[in-house]
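Quick log. Single chain, no ligands specified.
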Amino acid sequence: MTHLLIGGISDQQYGLNRWVNHSMRYVNHNDKTVKYSIYNICTLGG
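-> predicted structure:
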């Protein structure tokens, strides 16, 4: 029983870590895109 419980927890932890990593990558990508857009607006818009 404990073995199943521990296995379930580590699976959840793994899933959570993957989700967090994916989210962070997504946020970082969006952050760069936003900065690039702002840069373009500032440069092209004078």
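Residues 2-45 form the longest helix (44 residues).
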